[in-house]
């Protein structure tokens, strides 16, 4: 009779975490920053169809990095969850904190129970009536949730980008200022992005009920100029 | 309520309706038992195509049998940014149908990242009506009008439906509800090929006014309380309500010309 090989729980968790971290680190960084009108979602993304940022509900946005199929499935689950909740109760009853907790549970469950953890890192952003009420939830592959009201950087080389944004970020920046700050932090000092390489979206208080809006084409050129 | 995650074979795709059936399989959202005449009914809706868009208008009255149950009911709604839906028939199921329809379009747009085509939207509404057929046979029929602006042609389009889900595209105008016969006669006589927005608004107001004179379930403009029909235009700027001030001015001039006609 052969004995099953013993692996200590610490080692098992470490291996899983390493696996997930490696998967996430292969991709590019993405950032969500609050500004005067709401939240900016910004990612380096040469694809025009495989999106990282998306709309979840009226005031709630999403951004994911890592394995596209996995975070996109979670994005769709989030939309379904929010629409169902809004349909059964009221639109005002849908909030980002609840959604972030649901995501955390799923991520945690995958991390401990499934063959492989989900190789994703995500942001759930929600804007309130004023900039003090804007919230960003940062979700890790193991189900860890963190919340902040300033900025979150996810993906590969996130630490470098985070340091750069931290130097210049302050509350109450305009859209143009925050786009410049975030894109230059994402690109690094040696290069600059063309509009085709960027995916930019905002959750803005000026947009009415559905706050999410992609910034593309002429509008993006204007902001980057 | 947990996060709705499905296996690939179980996945309902971008349909909110399909999703609802997956998570609440025993509850069909649009099936109800009829209660005859005491159910609240909403009435006349007209939609008119004009140069570069389409206009929708509906009166504000809801009736339960011979009684007026609401004076301020709204029966014309935005379906999404570039389309609108107007309803006549049993108010309860109609309101729920509008809510589900709006949600269905938004849900699709969010999941897929791009909106449905105008034909796709009309088909969705047609499917919802088909689902409502059992209740319609019990007297809870809903008859909507769907209108939208199509960006690629730069024009408005109109769709009429029946209770079985039959979908009929109309070219210039459409009316539904108990006062539709009178309303559509007015529109038919006034309509011309290149109608301006302002004329279209006046025609729709006049059509609803004439219908309210002949049909007790259609409400006329209520000058005493300042209640006017809901009139909305859908063009390249999207769905937009016409403000009451504008409607009040136009109503006044219509009433003036009517009183001149009757010689009083």
How would you explain this protein's 3D organization?
The complex is a heterodimer of chains A (225) and B (264). Chain A is an alpha+beta fold. Helices cover 39% and strands 25% of the residues of chain A. Chain A contains six helices and ten strands, in the order αββββααββββααββα. Chain A has helices at 9-25, 68-88, 96-113, 158-168, 175-187, 217-224, and strands at 30-35, 38-44, 53-57, 60-66, 120-126, 135-139, 145-148, 151-154, 198-204, 212-215. In chain A, strands 8-1-2-9-10 form a five-stranded antiparallel β-sheet. A five-stranded antiparallel β-sheet of chain A has the order 3-4-5-6-7. The N and C termini of chain A lie far apart (71 Å). Chain B is 36% helix and 26% strand. Chain B contains seven helices and 13 strands. Chain B has helices spanning 16-23, 91-112, 118-131, 133-137, 180-190, 197-214, 244-261; strands at residues 41-42, 45-50, 53-58, 62-64, 67-70, 76-80, 83-90, 142-150, 155-161, 167-170, 173-176, 230-235, 238-241. In chain B, strands 1, 4, 5, 6, 7, 8, 9 and 10 form an eight-stranded antiparallel β-sheet that branches. Chain B has a five-stranded antiparallel β-sheet with strand order 11-2-3-12-13, covered by helices on one side. In chain B, helix 5 packs antiparallel against helix 6 (197-214). Classes of the chains: A alpha+beta (225), B alpha+beta (264). The interface between A and B is medium-sized, with 22 and 17 residues.
């Amino acid at each position: 009779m052969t004995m099953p090989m013993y692996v200590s729980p610490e080692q098992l968790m470490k291996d899983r975490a390493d696996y997930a971290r490696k998967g996430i680190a292969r991709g590019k960084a993405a950032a969500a920053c609050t500004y005067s009108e709401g939240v900016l979602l910004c990612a380096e993304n040469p694809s025009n169809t495989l999106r990282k940022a998306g709309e979840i509900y009226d005031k709630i946005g999403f951004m994911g990095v890592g394995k596209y199929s996995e975070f996109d499935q979670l994005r769709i689950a989030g939309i379904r969850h929010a629409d169902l909740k809004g349909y059964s109760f009221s639109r005002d009853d849908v909030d980002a904190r609840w959604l972030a907790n649901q995501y955390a549970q799923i991520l945690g469950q995958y991390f401990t129970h499934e063959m492989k953890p989900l190789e994703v890192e995500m942001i759930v952003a929600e804007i309130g009536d004023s900039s003090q009420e804007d919230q960003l939830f940062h979700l890790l592959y193991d189900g860890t949730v963190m919340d902040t009201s300033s900025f979150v950087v996810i993906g590969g080389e996130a630490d470098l980008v985070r340091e750069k944004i931290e130097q210049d970020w302050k509350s109450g920046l305009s859209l143009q200022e925050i786009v410049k700050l975030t894109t230059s932090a994402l690109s690094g000092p040696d290069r600059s992005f063309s509009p085709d390489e960027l995916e930019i979206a905002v959750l803005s208080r000026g947009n009415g009920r559905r706050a999410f809006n992609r910034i593309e084409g002429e509008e993006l050129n204007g902001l980057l100029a | 309520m947990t996060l709705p995650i499905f296996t690939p074979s179980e996945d309902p795709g971008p349909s909110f309706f399909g999703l609802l059936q997956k998570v609440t399989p025993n509850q069909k959202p649009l099936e109800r038992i009829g209660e005859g005449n005491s159910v609240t009914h909403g009435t006349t809706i007209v939609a008119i195509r004009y140069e570069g868009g389409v206009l929708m208008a509906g009166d504000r009255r809801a009736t339960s049998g011979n009684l007026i149950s609401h004076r301020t009911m709204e029966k014309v709604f935005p379906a999404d940014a570039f389309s609108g839906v107007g309803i006549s028939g049993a108010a309860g199921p109609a309101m729920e149908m509008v809510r589900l329809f709006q949600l269905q379009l938004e849900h699709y747009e969010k999941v897929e990242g791009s909106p449905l085509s105008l034909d796709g939207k009309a088909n969705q509404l047609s499917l919802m009506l088909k689902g409502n057929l059992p209740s319609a046979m019990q007297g809870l029929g809903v008859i909507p009008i769907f209108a939208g602006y199509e960006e690629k042609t730069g024009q408005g389009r109109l769709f009429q439906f029946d209770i079985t889900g039959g979908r009929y595209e109309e070219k210039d105008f459409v009316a539904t509800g108990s006062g539709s016969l009178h309303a559509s006669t007015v529109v038919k006589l006034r309509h011309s090929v290149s109608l301006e927005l302002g004329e279209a608004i006046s025609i729709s107001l006049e059509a609803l006014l004439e219908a309210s004179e002949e049909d007790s379930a259609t409400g006329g403009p209520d000058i005493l309380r300042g209640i006017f029909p809901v009139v909305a235009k859908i063009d390249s700027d999207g769905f937009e309500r016409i403000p009451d001030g504008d409607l009040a001015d136009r109503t006044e001039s219509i009433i003036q010309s009517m009183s001149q006609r009757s010689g009083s």
